[in-house]
Amino acid sequence: MTDNPVTITSVTSQYATQVAQDLKLNTKEQERIGAELSALQAQLRILQDDQSVLHSIQKTLGSRPAAAPSTPEPSTSLPQQASGKNTTTRRAPSKTAAKAPSTKKTTAQAKKEKAQGAEPKAATASASASASASASAQPTLIALIRTHLDQQKAPRSAAEVTSALAQAHPQRTIKSTVVRTTLENLVAKSQAHRSKQGASVLYTSVAMQTATEKTPAPALPQTEQDNSKHEKAGAVSS
Predict the structure, then answer these.
(1) Looking at the DSSP assignment, which residues form a beta bridge with residue 201?
(2) Are 22 and 85 in contact (CB under 8 A)?
(3) What is the pTM assigned to this prediction?
(4) Between residues 132 and 115, which one has the greater pLDDT?
(5) Residue 198: alpha-carbon gap to chain centroid
(6) Among the listed residues 194, 192, 147, 137, the one whose alpha carbon sits nearest the alpha carbon of residue 168
(7) CATH fold of 141-214, please?
């Protein structure tokens, strides 16, 4: 019995369509597997770099390096094209993440960094101690003012005291307002004497003020005493 030509043509068309679909699926599968293969090769290179870094750190630490596991070479062959339906087994993409190279510090490096960090702290502490010792060795402002007043033979204003102390101690910052306040505090504590000459306020040390008060008035010359007696006698006779 002869096959019907229409049936043969229909079957041939169906096979051609099926083969075309299988070829299209096969091509897509090859592209997918090729992309996975490239990603896996990139991950393999990262792992190999990490292995080299770890070996270097292990060598630096002085320990015996462990035997490096043999790395199998990935197959680069692509699946063969099938003439029938696509029978290639699909694989899920690998989820292996690239490990970042670990960084470890040796004991010597840690000690060195610790010593470098301690040096600035020691220098800072030494500078602070020196500054404190220098500050404690300097006399206070009130002591400087009292000493200056004791050395003067005449009253001095706050501006004159400020100028004299600033010249004698250029390393210190001496303000006239502070000097005036200190002088007023000394007067309030009876450690200095205040007087006024016109619009000026003058300050004197207690020691100099006491010495001035105890000094007797100068005696008049003999001629002045005689004149004074004559004037008194004339006033009585009149």
Answers:
(1) 196
(2) yes
(3) 0.36
(4) 115
(5) 56
(6) 147
(7) Arc Repressor Mutant, subunit A (1.10.10)
